[in-house]
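Quick one:
INPUT:
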């Protein structure tokens, strides 16, 4: 069941596949190397950066679009998560994607599915503490997508810094034969990281949202001036966030880039990360320190 969609105005068309058998057949004929960009759709400039990087490095580019129910907790935004397949297909066609895989839930999790991938403590700190089970869902769906698509390279955004660490651990621990490529975060001119969830923000919240970037930048600048005390870097981020009345910080973190354990001193790099609740959306951002 592979369809060809003529995107409006574009000379290119993109193949779409929804079931496992057609995916396997089409995948087998794709010239390598094959790059996979896993997404939940509602594609924006951040996703496009991943697609363009894959396009530059791979002979064939596959984009998966799947809003993964396993990575949403009860009461989270699974039902209202933005979905716009037509616009996504136009974006994929315009950026030279060869194949879009848009499975439904039973295609990824057939009836009776019960095996999950648990990365241990890495998945229970930071986002994992705020969203129990989230990284089990991420690790499980990424493992299934990698197995179904069998890419040579898979592309992930630095924006979701803990996800990068978790997926790296899965690939290492399960000896998966894929290379991971991490693409820098794409930001609005005012510093706000592009995210499908930015669409939830009111005008006032949107105006306040760059506070995440400002908090990270303040800590990055202190680090550049020689600050190595992790607690002072956390305090700096908290101080910037506290000045924004619409923002309620969930956590600020200065953690080891491999274990995600909170650091006392930054002497071998670190991952700065934070999560902030606004009335209409919860936003995350991060910044790796070398
Ligand atoms: P999502 O559709 O939110 O699951 O994201 C799919 C991929 O795009 C993930 O690897 C994200 O980290 C990446 N991504 C999302 N937003 C950005 C951004 N602003 N810059 C770079 N990558 C991003």
């Amino acid at each position: 069941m592979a369809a060809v969609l003529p995107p409006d105005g574009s000379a290119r068309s993109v193949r779409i596949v929804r079931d496992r058998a057609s995916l396997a057949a089409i995948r087998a004929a794709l010239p390598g190397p094959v790059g996979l960009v896993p997404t939940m759709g509602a594609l924006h400039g951040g996703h496009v950066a991943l697609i363009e990087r894959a396009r530059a490095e791979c002979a064939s580019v596959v984009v998966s679009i799947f809003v993964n129910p396993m990575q949403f907790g009860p009461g989270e935004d699974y039902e209202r998560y933005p979905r716009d397949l037509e616009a996504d297909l136009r974006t994929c066609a315009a950026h030279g994607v060869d194949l879009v895989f848009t499975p439904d839930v039973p295609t990824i999790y057939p009836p009776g599915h019960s095996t999950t991938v648990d990365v241990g403590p890495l998945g229970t700190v930071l986002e994992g503490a705020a969203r129990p089970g989230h990284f089990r869902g991420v690790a499980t769906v990424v493992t299934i997508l990698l197995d179904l698509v069998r890419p040579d390279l898979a592309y992930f955004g630095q924006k979701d810094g803990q996800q990068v660490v978790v997926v790296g651990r899965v690939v290492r621990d399960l000896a998966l034969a894929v290379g991971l490529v991490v693409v820098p975060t794409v930001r609005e001119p005012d510093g706000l990281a592009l995210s499908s969830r930015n669409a939830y923000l009111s005008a006032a919240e949107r105006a306040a949202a760059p506070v995440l970037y400002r908090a990270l930048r303040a800590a990055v600048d202190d680090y550049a001036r020689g600050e190595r005390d992790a607690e002072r870097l956390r305090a700096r981020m908290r101080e910037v966030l506290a000045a924004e009345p619409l923002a309620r910080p969930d956590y600020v973190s200065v953690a080891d880039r491999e274990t995600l354990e909170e650091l006392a001193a930054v002497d071998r790099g670190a991952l700065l990360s934070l999560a902030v609740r606004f009335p209409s959306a919860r936003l995350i951002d991060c910044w790796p320190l070398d």
